Amino acid sequence: MAGDQSPKDFPKVRGDFVDCPHCGCPNRPTDNLCSFCQKNLSSSPGVSTRIRKAVERMKWRYKVRRGHAPTGRSVAASVMTVILGFSLAALGGYFTLQGINSGSLSWILIGGIFVAYGLYSVAFVLKIVGK
User: Fold this and answer.
1) Is the pTM here over 0.85, yes or no?
2) Three-state SS for 47?
3) Are 80 and 116 part of one and the same domain?
4) Measured between alpha carbons, how far is 10 from 30 in angstroms, rounded to an integer?
5) For the chain, how are helix, strand and coil distributed in percent, rounded to 5?
6) Same domain, 50 and 20
7) What's the rounded Cα separation, in Å, for the pair 76 and 126?
8) Domain range holding 19?
9) pLDDT digits 0-9 by tens, 20-66
10) Residue closest to 118 by CA, chosen among 90, 81, 89
11) Most CB within 10 Å of its CB: which of 71, 98, 106, 108?
């Protein structure tokens, strides 16, 4: 049924049709309401749309003025991440050894993922601290 389709299923139609600003459904230019979501098809954005755009503009202006500041990561968070990373790598090593001893490829793969993620988290923290 047409009512079961999501707004993403509608094609972007140009020319003789107007896309609904709320759901994207194509409508005839003479329609006042969207045939899918029954919302107004006015060409001027509503108050909520204007407020949302103004807030987004203010966020971007703040980010541009502030520049690229450091992440602000605390020492405690960095230490906990390093401990967690080494713990994951050790657990992954254990899983890998168990997989090798039992001949289980799935345990070897799981262990490899744990080792990779643990080492990646440690390298990420050391890269931030090193800057």
Assistant:
1) no
2) helix
3) yes
4) 19
5) 60, 5, 35
6) yes
7) 14
8) 2-66
9) 777 777 888 788 888 888 888 775 666 777 787 778 778 877 777 76
10) 89
11) 108
